[in-house]
Amino acid sequence: MTGIAVVEGDGIGHEVVPVAREILAAVRPDLEFFEVEVGYGRWERTGSACDEETIADLKSADAILFGAVTTPPDPGYRSALLQIRRALDLYANVRPIRGEGVDIIIVRENTEGLYSGIEWTEPDRACTVRVVSRRGSERIARCACSLAAARRHLTIGNKANVLKSDSLFVDICRREAARAGVPCTTRFIDALSLDILMHPARYDVIVTTNIFGDILSDTAAYLVGGLGMLPSGNIGERHALFEPVHGSAPDIAGQGIANPIAAIRSAAMLLTHTGDPESAAVIEEAIDRVLNAGIRTRDLGGNAGTREFGAAVLREVLRGK
Ligand code: NAI
Ligand code: MG
Q: Hey, what's the signal peptide range on this chain (predicted)?
């Protein structure tokens, strides 16, 4: 029995995750789902966004399907997602970007860099420490190289011309690529952000540090129709969590108009990760058929609601099975 923890989170997480879960259950009736509450809504209600018990529940799952959580500006609030990524040691954030003429995987280091959580505020300045460790870089480089070995090549996104921490990162990635026999090039992250939009076919697997990968993947979403399209995996040695790249979208939450594709594709990634790429392909193909039939949510220029779009994918999934 495979146990899937389901975390809706906040905002449109409550709308897109149930759609993805229903499709997942349709392709794999053997999966067992259990809900875990995490996020700002829970914090408002109970004073805690995520606690030790939550972490233990998430650890007990074979995989986690996650929506999105709201991070309020409140200085006393600890980001639930950062807490989970750290507690479960989900060091690799894998973000595939596929569309017409685009087939890129961004592999983002997910536990350190500028998001290492080492920061403080003084009267006249505030400091955030950017930590790039040998161990952290080696394991993300290996993850990226193993993906690139089955594809074409690796690009190392960096700012080593300015940041010493990135010189270490580049050296380690280069060495791992040579060891894996993967052709690799380096690109400065600012130039790369433009080039990925102008010449997406130049890119295959891109490995980079935490915040650069965060920004680069939102930028690259432009190539395939926006944030509503992109799934991601947060993967560690023992645990894995799959979630849309987008956030809780408070500007459209509660209206039933969010695009559920990113969440549905995250469910498909979850299946591939748990050893069932065939069912994942059934889901991916169903999404393509629905889009080809001209059914779209508003962000893609259509007028289908979240549920309506999900129902169309579900129909295609059942036909494709
Ligand atoms: P966001 O991704 O929530 O929204 C950015 C823009 O994209 C908004 O205009 C939104 O309406 C649109 N959008 C996003 N997903 C969409 C979808 N599925 N369908 C249609 N339109 C969609 O990012 P934003 O506004 O910067 O952050 C909102 C909240 O989400 C914040 O509290 C932030 O901290 C949190 N967040 C959480 C993430 C996570 O849980 N992994 C990731 C990013 C942000
Ligand atoms: Mg982001």
A: none
| 8 A C-beta contact, residue 106 and residue 97 | yes
Binding site membership of 71 for ligand 1 (Cβ less than 6 Å): yes
Q: Coil, strand, or helix at residue 202?
A: helix
CA of 115 to the centre of ligand 2 (A): 12
**Sign (positive or negative) of CA dihedral 245, 247, 248, 252:** negative
Tokens of 164: 């010493």
ipTM of model over 0.85? yes
258 lines ligand 1 (CB under 6 A): yes
Q: Which domains does the chain have, with CATH numbers?
A: 1-90+236-321 (3.40.718.10), 92-226 (3.40.718.10)
Q: Could you tell which of 95, 227, 241 is best to mutate to test the pocket of ligand 1, judged by most ligand atoms within 8 Å of the CB?
A: 227
Q: Going by CA atoms, what residue is nearest to atom 25 of ligand 1?
A: 249
Q: Convert the pLDDT of each residue in 168-201 to its tens digit.
A: 999 999 999 999 999 999 999 999 999 999 999 9
Specify whether 89 is catalytic: no
Whole-model pTM: value is: 0.95
